[in-house]
Amino acid sequence: MKDSIINNEADFIRNLAGDFPRHPRQINHLMEADAEIIRLIGTEDEFLVLKTDGIHEEIREGLYDDPYLVGWMCITAPMSDIAAVGAQPTGILLSLTLPQHSDDKWLRQFKAGINAACRTYNTYVLGGDTNFGHAFSVSATAVASIKSHRPLLRSGARHGDYLYATASLGLGNAYAYYRLFDSSIEIKYQPIARLAESGVIAKYASACIDTSDGLFPALSVLSEINKVGFDLTVPLQDLLHPSILPLKDHSGLPAWMFMAGPHGEYELLLTVPEKVNDEFQRACEGSILQPLFLGKIIDNETILFSSESLKVQCHPAAIANLFSESNGNIQSYFERLLKQHQHWINT
Question: β-strand 292-298 against 207-210: which pairing, if any?
Fold first, then answer.
């Protein structure tokens, strides 16, 4: 391992946006939260929260071609980031680019997905912008607020903290594998942003991030921001979503690949200080939040995990960077995952 390894995506964002002016009342630094958080004038505990998200790559690569899913995901993606900072949504602004001659049936299903997501998250389409172009494109900006509690940030994780997820993992990558490599075993995919769970999380978590890019990319960001590592004491195969198991057995792929990203399952990943962990567990009893224990935070910037018979120690960015090192080429990325797995077996 090399101490100089960094998260490539985070480094790109810093180089792109690091010189932009920041609002004087914005409480999160660059990359420090899943959404942008601004303290309202004259208050100590009320915040405006904003998040813009697009699903352009997923549409371009053929992951999302069902118009209902496209509509659902264009709302769910920013809602997941809103949940990760402990906010509650006010509404959504949509930016749409439509072909000049759009298919009416496709648009009806797209709108149905949007409406279903808005009902699920108790939010509304406030307005936005519509224009025309050669290809369909959609982005959404969520407007939300936090009142009477501190915002959740990605910073704050410390040695000894417990690491949890809101539910089982790997569904996003399994769906991508099904769509792009092997359609013989269907994987159903319609993630739900964990807004309902975030109320309990905000009371106890020291840090939080969503897994929209997968488990290992999320861990890489948490590691880089907090200068910590992770001992994932639960074998990764025990953390997989149950619906993945037939595909896993059929493909022969190891559990860790289903958590490598870059297409995640939109769960929340949270750290809880040891001193409040028992209280957190009691608060979860009988609530909608049933956290999945993954392991603990360690001092060294490394990840320790087991996947089937394989035991791995690697830098937190090593797995997350494989996609950017493939220049976004899906086939090349998959080959790098296989090569990395073989390297770990050989060493």
Answer: unpaired
